[in-house]
Structure prediction request, 422 residues.
Amino acid sequence: MEKIIVEGGHRLQGTVTISGAKNAALPILVSALLAEGWSVYQNVPDLRDIRTIKSLLTDLGVQVNTQGSTVKVNAGTLRSHEAPYDLVKTMRASVLVLGPLLARLGRARVSLPGGCAIGARPINLHLKGLEQMGAHISLEHGYIDAEVPSLKGADIYLDTVTVTGTENLMMAAAMADGVTILRNAAREPEVVALATALNQMGAQITGAGTPVVTINGVDSLKPTSVTIIPDRIEAGTFMIAAGVTHGNIKIIGAQPGHLAAVIHKVRQAGITVEQEPDGLRVVCEQTLSSVDVKTLPYPGFPTDMQAQFMVLMCLAPGLSVISETIFENRFIHVSELQRMGVDIKVSGHTAVVQGGRPMTGAPVMATDLRASASLILAALAAEGTTEISRVYHIDRGYEAIEKKLAQLGARLWRTGGSASPK
Ligand code: EPU
Prediction:
């Protein structure tokens, strides 16, 4: 099994360039299902989740052509309406094909994603919204079977803010008869990026980035060309890497507008963040301060940065309280971090970190994508060597992570693949 070995204690310094955002690329690649002809996507990261969505599109009969970070997709050849269990089980975001398949073919059969390490993650709001748009949905043998003669616009209130739920319904509504209103919609930059891509295809969507999104259905959509926005979570993770190693990193492509909550909290912790024309410079020269954090839907502090911020707080003398309000089980990294000597107590949705204790390298296990990022960050700061197993989690969402960290002066390498220090 592949492992990442990290020798801790090296200060990070230099420049890193942020890749395209996984969570923007996934729905945008799927949106190609809504048109016939070649759409062109640039700055698509080379990640395991992106390969999974490309496999799913190919499985549906869609043509996919990849050259470096440019991906071309032609859904003129779409011939299947089924997303099988084998693909959906490896990536929940596969459920994003539900809305576009219904819009294009009037039917979809998509495996129900099960639970996942970070929580139950139901998709009831995706299904309820599609039902309001006239879809007949049944759940049998682990599959969602959805059918509709033609989708109708509807006034939909989402009980919980859901990112992929908002995206799925936006794609379904783009070609529905009449107007759809999504209330309590997710405001994430990735939702805005999808709406922008859909509008370029000829959709009429207004309000993306606000809690009320209005979609005026159109008869058809045309192919388009899109450059994927930089990954704000990757950028945030490198900001924390600068903090935990008392480093000085220029992060090219980091969008301050997408990172306002993270920048605010990182600054409170004593890290300097300066805006430069092409990104952010992040410098940590002083003792860290403890800060409380509560995860919230955008523009609140992202749940996808909670595990990484916790590592920063492990190094800040004093108490910090970290509240997770989005997912019910997103503290699984805590027991692995405890193996490295940190003092964290979890009660329900709250983790109390007593920071300032030295961290020591240990064998640890990655349990999900962001948890694995937190283990790498802890390992960079720890005394001695850390061995991280189950690293396939990190390959889902961080492009060339070892190479990027090594360029900044980190000492880490992978065993199982290439065994020598990079
Ligand atoms: N929820 C429901 N019913 C639904 C949908 C969601 O109750 O029908 C609940 C969820 O259980 C959760 C909350 O609503 O408690 C928010 O979940 P959301 O639907 O927003 O999550 P998601 O769309 O499945 C996306 C990202 C996640 C990120 C979350 C929250 C993608 C592909 N995934 O997931 O990214 O954590 O939003 O911001 O966009 C990651 O990249 O590591 C990752 C997990």
